[in-house]
Amino acid sequence: MAAAISLIGAPTDIGAGSLGARMGPEAMRVAGLQAALERHGLQVEDLGNLAGPPNPWQPPVDGYRHLDAVVAWNQAVHDAMLAALQRQRLPILLGGDHCLGLGSISAVARHCRATGKKLRVLWLDAHADFNTNSLTPSGNIHGMPVACLCGLGPQALIGMSGQVPALNPKWIRQIGIRSVDPGEKRLVHQTGLEVFDMRYIDEMGMRHTMELALATLDAQTHLHVSFDVDFLDPPIAPGVGTTVPGGPTYREAQLCMEMIADTGRLGSLDVMELNPALDVRNQTAELAVDLIESLFGKSTLMRA
């Protein structure tokens, strides 16, 4: 695991169905993310915020809301993430809505091809984000990034990594899923995505879930974690625009992050959909910082 970290803010809610995620990066900073990471001996640079078009708040066109602006924001994210990876730093993307996972993971996929690494993506989310313009009820592109990464979407988004598809669906593990639209459900099944939904976690436990999700990682694997804050149970994380009851508890989320840290393979991270306008005294941002600390090795006791 790299000890040099770059924080990259992407203050936009361009792909979301509610306003406010554009304030997420600052809420993370106010919650003390940089200092928290530095306490663990990590060298952290904050690159500030990326710039992009404002949110015009328009209705969908051909099943997509704000497509051109979404492309512009994702290209900016792609370029910033790739530059950090090429400097051998571990980038943390501070969102912003989850459509930005498309630019982020496209950059990681491009970097892995260039360096001969295998890629594993953990998608921690209440939603599968596997809609297409013909399936989406809303046209909000934050419900489409995984589908786009798998080659299902407009050319301007699916080609961002330099290869279509950017990801083989077999490289993705989705964890915490509990809200999937009807047409999306069929597409997830047809594509063969590996999904550990909340029923699976309830029945088998978070430890078993993460053992499977992290199986076969080796020294040649780059692990990318895309963490949508709505992954968490809403009572502990109210500051998101798309809350779904019944998510992982605080302890389940901590175990998830600690087991990722134990692999030593984390190479890049997205923290998405934090919406301070819906939060209570910044508690969701503070919880996110706490969980990110665990991703980088915070634990109660010294572990072998």
From TrEMBL:
One Pfam family matching this protein:
Arginase
Q: Which UniProt keywords apply?
A: Arginine metabolism, Hydrolase, Manganese, Metal-binding
SUPFAM superfamilies per the UniProt record, alphabetical: Arginase/deacetylase (SSF52768)
Give its E.C. classification number.
3.5.3.1
Q: What GO molecular function terms would the record report?
A: arginase activity; manganese ion binding
**Cofactor binding note from Swiss-Prot or TrEMBL:** Binds 2 manganese ions per subunit.
Q: Pathway it acts in?
A: Nitrogen metabolism; urea cycle; L-ornithine and urea from L-arginine: step 1/1
- Keyword Manganese carried by entry: yes
CC cofactor = Mn(2+)
The highest taxon in the source lineage is: Bacteria
Q: Which NCBIfam families match?
A: rocF_arginase (TIGR01229)
**UniProt record similarity statement:** Belongs to the arginase family.
- The identity of this protein, by name, is Arginase
Annotated organism of origin? Pseudaquabacterium pictum
